[in-house]
Amino acid sequence: MKEKVQLLWAKRPLIISGPCSAETEEQMIATAQRLAATGKIDMLRAGIWKPRTRPGMFEGIGVKGLPWLAQAKKITGLPTTVEVATAKQVEDALSFDVDVLWIGARTTVNPFSVQEIADALRGVDIPVLVKNPINPDLELWMGGIERIQKAGIKQVGMIHRGFSSYGNTEYRNAPMWHLAIEMKRRNPDMLLICDPSHISGRRDILQAVSQQAINLDYDGLMIESHITPDEAWSDAKQQITPERLAELLDAIEWRKEDVNSAEYHAALEKLRQQINHLDDELMQIISQRMKVAEQIGKYKKENNITILQTNRWNEILEKAHKKGEVLNLSREFMTKYYDAVHMESISHQNKIMEG
Ligand code: PEP
Ligand code: MN
Question: Cα–Cα–Cα angle for 72, 38, 16, nearest 5°?
Answer without folding.
Answer: 60
